[in-house]
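Box 3.1 A note on notation
Throughout this textbook, protein chains are presented in two layers. The first layer is the amino acid sequence; the second is a token string describing backbone geometry. Keep the layers aligned when reading.
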Amino acid sequence: MDISEVKRIAVIGAGTMGSRISLACALHGYDVIVHDISDDALRGLEFRLQFFGYNWVQAGLTEQEAVEKSLSRIRTASDPADAAADADILIEAVSEKLDVKHKVFRQFDKLCPQRTIFVSNTSSLLTSEMETSLKRKDRFAALHFHRYKTVVDIMRGTKTSDDSVELLKQFSRSMDELPIVMKKEHPGFLHNWMFISWLEAGIWLAAGGYGAIEDIDRSWMKVHNMPYGPFGALDFVGLDVASDIGTGLEGKGHPGHWREIREFLKPYIEKGYLGVKTGRGFYTYPEPAYAQPGFLEEE
């Protein structure tokens, strides 16, 4: 399959990253269908699309008219068979739990056309761990998105074909993203392995009582001239996703303060404060405190 033949993208998971990926695909002319087992997640998709669209317009990455037009290219489907029909690329963006991803891949492997390329937007899992639930191992890879128009990570599985990798590189470039192909597997790819360490350090400082959440973010934002700190970033990742990532890394023996981090995040998760996707995490959205004038000057 050539990139010119790619027309329809199926996104499985309507959370933060599923929303971000859907809007980016639609902005670049792809027809997108979003599936989620949660009707609440599908109902909240419009809010998240508008949130990302607004921020990208403010950042000068697109125009409001383009965002409005792109929304007409996105539709939702509660029926998995409807989402799978005629999909050229399927992008999995569900929770960071291996058993959940396996269930999704087994289900859609049976429903999608043979030509469909499968990818996972995993943040920390290995392609070789996920591919075991698929028959189409030659048409499977990890394809991890970051901020819009930056970098897309590509990680092969044990049998990913060169043709599949090339198509995914072209697909990434078609959305003004730079494809970075891993030389070999590693949890978190390149950027995310560094990113996870940054987030872990921020949470550890707050969990240990060394600084307030806002001050930890201010410190990073002011020194590095960044629009958010680790806790603003965690709200985009999703607090539940961050907890799952830590649990997974702990299970594989990677050193870190995973238990303490899990305990720190637990009260937020139990209250449903998961970040941008629920409208509240460490901050409240769509107008988080760290984005307000004067935040960096407050004590």
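Residues 122 and 144 are 6 Å apart (CA to CA). The two ends are 56 Å apart (CA to CA).
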